[in-house]
Amino acid sequence: MASEENFMRAPAPTPKRTVYTEAMEIFHRAADLIRLDKRVRLELEEPDYEHIFYVTAKLKDRLIPLSPEKAKQFSDLPETQVRNKEGLEALANGNIILNGRALLGSDVAIRQGHLRLPDGKVYQLVPGESQRFKAYRVQHNQARGPYKGGLRYHREVSLDLFKALAAEMTWKTAISEVPFGGGKGGIQIDPREYGREELEAITLRFMYRLKSLIGPNIDIPAPDVGTNPEIMALLYRQFSDGERERHNLRGIVTGKDVRIGGSEGRGKATGQGVAFCIEDYYADRGESVKGKTFVLQGFGNVGSHAANILAGMGARLLAVNDADGTIYNGDGIDVQALSAYVQDPKNLKRSVLGFPGAQKIEKKDLWDVQADILVPAALGGEITADIAERLKVKLIAEGANGPTTPEADRVLQKRGIELIPDIIANAGGVTVSYYEWIQNKRMERWSEAEVDQRLERAMKRNYRIIRDISRNQPRKTDMHDSRQYCIGETVDTRCAAMILALKRIEAHYLLEGFSQ
Ligand code: NAD
């Protein structure tokens, strides 16, 4: 029988490797290198708060298409004339939301709960039921200011993922010198499977639950994957509803439409920031973006804006993919035409697939395209070690959060592929979110040129400090001062970015002390 002494000496179980522990590897590496204060390390290792809660909503009736095989048994079912077409809302997954008013005044032929629409297809009518969704908000750290970070609506989310993304925000807000901490959250939902009014109800209920946890000086959400300015408007409405000073609460979310207090330039800010970093990377080498080629993963907010801006700088997009497919054109893809194609309301999936100016290729072949730059702008963990071995690019600028696994990072270093890490490359979004928040507080409105100018200075200044840390080249120029951040040895760029973040956060704890 194991004595108590033996039990005490039993080796600690190896901690399970998770998205969070993987994401924190670089934190530990940088913390070791700068001998981060032990207590600061403990403060940063785990989030301040992890909230998990549930959101319920009543869904609407749906029409679900039958397979051609099953539809045969209804071959003589007459067509239902739809007088009020606006009452039908087609979803990206092929289902149709049937609003109560849709069939008003129409001749309806229903058999065993099935009807045929004017598109010729037979649909099963499924009554709307209530559904429960899991929701999260992780508040990682607030040493430098209110928690700040996006809300994601996506099927594949978890507490572990949001912990990793919230910590990333803590590093990113420190790197971009905005007075915020880090947070992240969202709902486990595929928004493409729900109608506009359903998403509205879910979002309002989400904020109803979230309201006691956040505030314009406490925790400020923003858009992320699957959310957008419309969702931000709903969140603002729900948060401020009935409040006497609701105009003072506009800063509760950023990424709003400019007509209701959003900032000029916020929509494109993350893509713009990626492009500023790439521009500065080449300027540092005495080169320009003009004539360079690039490959892009993801054509959503970040990807499409980055592509448009890089194309405007004279770079050529060779291949791009999204969740639905991959396209390639060796002569270059016309990014403006592609954006128009994706935004066309007829393109229900908002996908690049089927774009006439390029050919379809397999997703796996995206990684084999030879180009100067790769911009991952989709989800995390996409560039694995195997993919890193195959890549035929010279520079990766991480538009997405955490797109490269730690193993892939090591491969990239071995292969000499250069990296602009996510916590600087995609910091443009949170930087302009800060500008939006200030404008809301001051009731001001800045022009797009002013926003862009400030963003360019902020991105390039901090990216230069990171490059200096990486090269161990302490110096002061008109634009930046890296002397207090270099550590006396060279490090890779991802580690350099983390060193900058940790030194800035640590200063708060060391100078202000810890509240008891
Ligand atoms: P989005 O929802 O607008 O776009 C996501 C894109 O990725 C879509 O084109 C989607 O089809 C594609 N995609 C999804 N899964 C894919 C897959 N498996 N393979 C290829 N493509 C896939 O989201 P977004 O706001 O552009 O965010 C993209 C990334 O950038 C995320 O990692 C997000 O956390 C990060 N980010 C966003 C912002 C911002 O301001 N929106 C700021 C910083 C970082």
Structural overview:
The protein is α/β, with parallel strands linked by helices. It contains 16 helices and 17 strands. The strands form 3 sheets. Strands 14-13-12-11-15-16-17 form a 7-stranded mixed beta sheet. Helix 11 links the parallel strand 15 and strand 16. The chain is globular and about 80 Å long. Bound molecules: nicotinamide-adenine-dinucleotide. Nicotinamide-adenine-dinucleotide (NAD) binds next to helix 9 and strand 12.
List keywords for this structure.
alpha/beta, 7-stranded mixed β-sheet, 516 residues, 5-stranded mixed β-sheet, globular
How would you state the average pLDDT, rounded?
A: 95
Radius of gyration: 25 Å
Share of β-strand residues: 15-25%
Distance N to C terminus: 43 Å
Task: Write down the overall geometry.
Answer: globular
The biggest beta sheet reads: 7 strands, mixed
Strand arrangement across the biggest beta sheet: 14-13-12-11-15-16-17
Residue runs with pLDDT of under 50 for 5 or more positions: none
Give the helix proportion (percent range).
Answer: 25-40%
Structural class: alpha/beta
Q: Which ions, cofactors or small ligands are bound in this entry?
A: nicotinamide-adenine-dinucleotide
Total beta-strand segments: 17
Q: How many helices?
A: 16
